Description:
Elements: H1 2-54, H2 57-68, E1 73-79, E2 85-88, H3 98-101, H4 107-116, E3 120-124, E4 129-135, E5 149-155, H5 157-205, H6 221-257, E6 260-266, E7 271-274, H7 276-281, H8 293-297, H9 302-316, E8 323-330, E9 336-348, E10 354-363, H10 365-378, H11 389-399, E11 410-418, H12 421-428, H13 430-447, E12 452-458, E13 461-466, H14 473-492, E14 495-497, E15 500-502, E16 506-514, H15 521-537, E17 543-545, H16 548-564, E18 573-582, E19 587-598, E20 602-604, H17 606-616, H18 619-639, E21 646-651, H19 653-656, H20 661-671, E22 679-684, H21 692-705, E23 708-714, H22 721-726, E24 731-734, H23 736-739, H24 745-760, E25 764-767, H25 773-781, E26 786-787, H26 798-806, H27 813-816
Parallel strand pairs: 16-17, 19-21, 21-22, 22-23, 23-24, 24-25, 25-26
Antiparallel strand pairs: 1-2, 1-5, 3-4, 4-5, 6-7, 6-10, 8-9, 9-10, 11-13, 11-16, 12-13, 14-15, 18-19, 18-26, 19-20
Amino acid sequence: MAPLCLILLYLSLVGAEFYYEKSLKQEQVAEAQLAQVRQQMFRLQHIVSDAMAVQDTDRIAQEVSLAATDLELMVLVLVDPASNIRYANHLVWQGSRASQVIDGYEPARHEQTVAGQKPWVQVNPDRLSIQAYYPVSHSGVPRYSEINLIYLEYDLSGAYSRSISELQQRFLQIWGGGAVLILMFLTVFHYVGVRPLRSLLRLARLKQAEPLAQTVPMASSEVAKLQQYMYQTELKLKRTLKQLRDSEQRWLFAVEGSQTGIWDWQISIGELFLSDRWKEMLGYGPTELKNEYSSWESHLHPDDKARVLERLQSYLKGESDVYESRHRLKHRQGHYIWVLDRGMVVEWEEDGRPARVIGSQRDVSEDVRNQQAIAHQANHDSLTNLANRRAVMDALFEFQQAGPGSMLRLGALLLIDLDNFKLVNDALGHHHGDRLLIQAAARLSGFFSGNALVARLGGDEFAIMVLDLATDNEQAAHQAMQLGAELKQQIARSFQLSDQQINVTASVGVCLFDNHHPVEPAQLLKHADMAMYAAKDGGRNGCALYSDELEDKATENLWLQNELRHAIEREQLSLVFQPIFNHDGELVCCEALCRWHHPERGAISPAQFIPVAEDSGLIIGIGQWVLLEVCRTLKAMADKGTPMPAVAVNISARHFNQSDFVERLLALLKAHQVSPEQIELELTEYALLSNLNAISERMQRLRSAGFSIAIDDFGTGYSSLSYLQSLPLSRLKLDAAFVGRIGTEAGNAIVRAIVEMAHSLMLKVVAEGVETEAQQAYLSSLDCDFFQGYLLGKPMPAASLVALRSGEQPTSTHYLG
């Protein structure tokens, strides 16, 4: 077959080359003749035009006769506009219509050529000829002006035949020479290549000892090397077979001494060999189990049986590459052990079906227990053994996979945070804090009998996922809020830690969800967290339900926080000063108030941005800026000769509790040459919740330096009389909320009690938010020391405050009190 294929390939290549050169040769002949025809026609066109101009008809006839001597010229005629032949290379055509006697002539082409006065020349492959239409220009002579076209058709068949004959003669010479060379090559190849290879194949089939060592006659160097390689491969194969037999013996010895059991299943006869170690795993002796397939199948765990058999059949059908299964087998003593089973087909039937499978089995019970323990730890909190955040996320995701096609199910996610848990840790230590968390977890998990997932997210945050609430959103919300109230009561019960009782409260955030409107689990947790913080903002120990307004509020707070970070450097903050008057109507001091003017939002209320600054920690930077601006203002006004009264500055708890607060404040006043007597520090009661000793020591240093210290918004925080007695305070600022209730029996009683209590402690009282004359009159009757409010004076720039102090602005009795 090889010589035949080679010859056919050679003939195909030569034939393709012949037809390619034939086509190329015809194109060359046509181009050459086409150029010659153009030249002749151009010459004839001018001769006819000139002859017609001088009325020389003999010259036209001579030129036509001369052109007719070319044997390849098929047609040469001069026609008038009516297609009548005036002159022709065949006299019989003269006087006839060209369309009737000439096959290739086209009247439409005649008219188109004359109209455009542009020659048309083209090779006609169907007629094997060149056709040309040349217009004849004339001077308008009546007799001869009727000739307006020269039509020519030139025969190419003769030139084609000559070129093809030459090509055929050349290719016959090439074919002949090539065929001789190929036959010579095939002959040499047969004796040098084919015959030695056949001899080598015959030797390889012989079963006598080392037949490949014999010499192959007339073998080429390549064949000789191939024989040498085959001989070396044969020797290597024999060594490998010996090593394989040795390895089999070592393997059998190793298996017997290992903890792996061996099984050998003859599928066709149903016989199953089980090694002694295999039987020992299940507590049986070497002869206590029959060598049958049923001995294995009957010991499979009922929950694993279908899966294991399906996997085995899938492997035997060739649907999977390997058989490997981890399942449980029943021990002789009644319990189940985990085993790792592997197997592979080693023999096949003639029809391709598996005939024999060999496999191994290993006891992996300890590995499974370890993995289960790791999986439990991955989804449970190590301290309380409740589910963790990951378990909650997985449960939420699984619940929402049912999708819109299933029955509507409503659920609620409740996020519980213990209020002020940090105080328990700080006061009693983290050990007792952990014990409180464990007891709280036990209460929460014990409260639910089922259909709920109780989890600890971290710190003092717990989450409860409750399913299958009422199918109505309003009813489901009511049930969830009622459940949140009950959970608050569970937390509010006293906790017993060693020999003392601890009471804590909880803030609960509630978020509803359903399986028809999937929401990302992380987003649901975020919603519940927003609701929980809304409950804390409402005074703690509360329960709040998530709504879109909370999302808008969170977005607004995030925007405020981002913009507030750059408010100082962009010079968007400013200070105004609200005057404080004494009982006699004298301006004795003022309170510095921070204002924020945003270039896009305009004026932003302190009630909006101060809480955001507190939560984000930006309040420290803002507080430092306020102290700096107050010092600059005091210094600038003093330099102008218009000194300001003492300025009260609100200090946040975060700012005041900084370890270097006193040092930085003294350095700031010294740098601007401001006396401490000109500054009064106003602290909220929340600032007193941390280490009282440290707070007292810090206040003593400030009082020693000359600062005055006041408690701002008194009555709304967490202070007690013991705090007031032990701290070096100078004033109490009565919160505007109490002043606003003056006129009611309860409001009057509270205000009277606070004023009398402060005076008994030798403290001055400043009433905030005085907006009516009735409020001022009642406070005056109680001998309240100072007044602050819109009735007396609104916040104003420093220059206006100085002018008010100097009496430049008109005042009235009701304005100054």
